[in-house]
Write a structure and sequence with these properties.
The complex is a heterodimer of chains A (226) and B (242). With 226 residues, chain A is mainly alpha-helical. Chain A contains seven helices and two strands, in the order ββααααααα. Chain A is globular. Chain A has one domain. Chain B has four helices and four strands; from the N terminus they run ααβαβββα. Chain B has a four-stranded mixed β-sheet with strand order 2-1-3-4. In chain B, strand 3 and strand 4 form a beta hairpin. In chain B, helix 1 runs antiparallel to helix 4. Chain B is rod-shaped and about 205 Å long. Classes of the chains: A mainly alpha (226), B alpha+beta (242).
Chain lengths: 226, 242
C-alpha cells in the first residue's frame, strides 16, 4: 500500500495515473469532506430569528474569523474570509486530527504547509499589485531606500519559508515527541502530551492565520508592511 | 527530505477547492443570515426608536391637553363662580327688595290699620260723646238747654257784621233739638227778627241729628250752632292730627 515510509515525507497511498496520492492528500480529502459536510449540514436550515445551537456555533466561528480579519487587517472580512477563514479552519482541523488514532496530520508534511505558504505568497503579491499597481507595489521593495531591495526580497522569501517550516516543524516535532514517548513509556503517559497537542494545534493555526493576514494586509497597505 | 511537487500542487488545489466550498456552504450563508439579523435588529431598533419618539410625542401632546383641560377647568370654574356670585347677589338684592317691599307694605298696612283704628276710635268717641250728650241733655232738661242755646246763638249773631244775615232769602228755617214749644218759638222769633229782618218767614223744625243746639237755615246760608257741628269739627281735627 505505502511505497515508502519516512518521518518527514508522507507515504504514497495510491496513484491516479502518474499522480501519486500521498497520505496527507488523502487525509486532506477526508478533512475537506468533513468540513464541507459540517458546513452543509449547519447551513441547511438557517434561521434569522430562531437559530439553533449548531447554527449559533457556526455563527460564532465565522464571527470570530471576521473579527480576526477586521482587527488584524483593518479591512472588511467578506473579501478575505474564504482565504483567512479557510486557512484557520483547515489548519486547526489538520492539527487536531492526530487525536483520532492512526491519523497523521497533513500539516506535518512540508507539501501541505508549502502549498499553504505558496497560496499566501501568491495572494500577498496579487492583492498588493491589484491594490497599489505594479509599480507602486514594486516600489515598496525599495523602502526605505533602494539598498534594502535585496533584503526586502530575501525577507519576502524567508518569511514565507518560515511560515511553512514553522507550522510543519511544530506539528511534526510534536508528533515525533508523542511517538517517542509512546515507544518508551507506554500507552497512557502520552495522554497529557496529546492534550497539549490541542493547545499547540490551536496556537499554530492561529499564528499561521495571523501572519498570513498580516502579510496580506501589509501588501495591501491596510497595515504597516511586515 | 524532498518536496513532492505533485503533493504540493494537489494540496494547493485542495485548499482552493475547500475555500470555494466553504465560501459556498459556510461563509456566505452565515454572513447573509447575520446581516439579515442585524438588519432586522436595526429595523426593530429603528421601529422601537420611532415608537418611543411617537410615545414621547403622545406624552407631550397628552400633557399639553392635560394643561389645556386644567386651564379650561379653571376658566369654567371661574365662570361658574362669577355666575354663582352674580346669582347670589341678584337673589340677595331680590330678597332685600322683597323684604323692603314687604316691610313697606306692612308699614303701610299698619298705618292704614292704625288710621282706621284711630278713625274708628274717633267714631266711637263721637258716638260715645253723642250718647253722653243725649243722656246729659235728657237729664238737664230741654228748656234750660234751649234757652242757653238761644243766648249763645244771639251772642254769636251779634258778633257777626251788621246786616250779614239780611237779604238771605224769604224763609228762615230754624232747626233745634230739643224741639221748641210755642212759647219757645215766640221767644226765639222775637230774638232773631233784629238780625234777619221782619220780612223773613221763620219756620221752626226739630232735628234729632243736631244732638243739641240749633241751625239757622237760609236758602243760601246755614249758621250752625249745634253739638253735631262741634263734634264734626272735633272729628275733623282728630283725623287731621292722626
Amino acid at each position: 500500500m505505502a511505497e515508502k515510509t519516512s518521518l518527514i515525507n508522507a507515504p504514497i497511498v495510491f496513484h491516479i495515473g502518474p499522480v501519486p496520492i500521498g497520505l496527507e492528500v488523502l487525509t486532506t480529502w477526508v478533512i475537506m469532506a468533513v468540513l464541507v459536510g459540517v458546513a452543509w449540514y449547519g447551513s441547511r436550515r438557517l434561521s434569522v430569528t430562531r437559530p439553533g445551537r449548531f447554527q449559533v456555533v457556526l455563527e460564532m466561528a465565522v464571527g470570530f474569523l471576521g473579527d480576526l480579519i477586521r482587527d488584524v487587517m483593518g479591512a472588511e472580512p467578506d473579501t478575505f474570509l474564504p482565504l483567512i477563514g479557510t486557512l484557520f479552519l483547515y489548519i486547526v482541523t489538520c492539527n487536531l486530527s492526530p487525536l483520532l488514532p492512526g491519523v497523521k496530520p497533513p500539516t506535518a508534511s512540508f507539501e501541505t504547509t508549502g502549498a499553504l505558504g505558496l497560496i499566501v505568497f501568491c495572494t500577498v503579491h496579487i492583492l498588493g499589485v491589484r491594490r497599489r499597481g505594479l509599480v507602486g507595489y514594486l516600489r515598496t521593495y525599495l523602502q526605505p531606500t533602494v539598498i534594502f531591495l535585496p533584503l526586502n526580497v530575501l525577507g519576502e522569501l524567508t518569511r514565507t519559508f518560515a511560515l511553512m517550516v514553522r507550522l510543519a516543524g511544530n506539528i511534526m516535532s510534536h508528533e515525533l515527541t508523542i511517538a517517542v514517548i509512546i515507544g518508551l513509556v507506554g500507552l497512557l503517559v502520552p495522554i497529557p502530551f496529546m492534550a497539549l497537542s490541542i493547545l499547540v494545534g490551536l496556537v499554530q493555526a492561529y499564528i499561521f492565520t495571523i501572519l498570513a493576514a498580516v502579510f496580506i494586509g501589509g501588501a495591501m497597505g491596510t497595515i504597516e508592511k511586515a | 527530505m524532498h518536496i513532492d511537487l505533485w503533493a504540493l500542487a494537489l494540496q494547493a488545489t485542495n485548499f482552493a477547492i475547500l475555500a470555494w466550498l466553504l465560501q459556498r456552504f459556510l461563509y456566505r450563508p452565515i454572513t447573509r443570515v447575520v446581516a439579515e439579523r442585524r438588519a432586522l435588529v436595526e429595523k426593530q431598533f429603528a421601529e422601537a426608536t420611532a415608537a418611543r419618539h411617537q410615545a414621547e410625542l403622545d406624552r407631550q401632546d397628552y400633557e399639553r391637553r392635560l394643561a389645556g383641560i386644567a386651564a379650561e377647568r379653571e376658566r369654567v370654574l371661574a365662570e361658574a363662580r362669577a355666575r354663582a356670585e352674580a346669582e347670589r347677589r341678584a337673589v340677595i338684592e331680590a330678597a332685600e327688595a322683597q323684604t323692603a317691599a314687604a316691610a313697606q307694605a306692612q308699614r303701610r298696612q299698619l298705618d292704614q290699620e292704625r288710621q282706621m283704628a284711630v278713625a274708628e276710635l274717633g267714631d266711637r268717641a263721637v258716638e260715645l260723646g253723642l250718647v253722653l250728650a243725649e243722656r246729659l241733655l235728657d237729664q238737664a232738661g230741654g228748656a234750660a238747654v234751649t234757652a242757653d242755646l238761644l243766648e249763645r246763638l244771639c251772642a254769636h249773631l251779634a258778633s257777626m257784621p251788621t246786616g250779614h244775615l239780611r237779604d238771605r232769602g224769604p224763609v228762615l228755617q230754624v232747626a233745634t233739638r230739643p224741639g221748641l214749644d210755642p212759647d219757645g218759638q215766640a221767644r226765639w222769633r222775637q230774638r232773631l227778627v233784629p238780625y234777619v229782618g221782619e220780612a223773613v218767614e221763620i219756620i221752626f223744625v226739630t232735628d234729632q241729628t243736631l244732638i243739641a243746639g240749633a241751625e239757622l237755615r237760609f236758602p243760601s246760608l246755614i249758621v250752625a250752632f249745634s253739638w253735631r257741628d262741634s263734634l264734626a269739627e272735633a272729628r275733623a281735627t282728630m283725623q287731621v292730627g292722626s
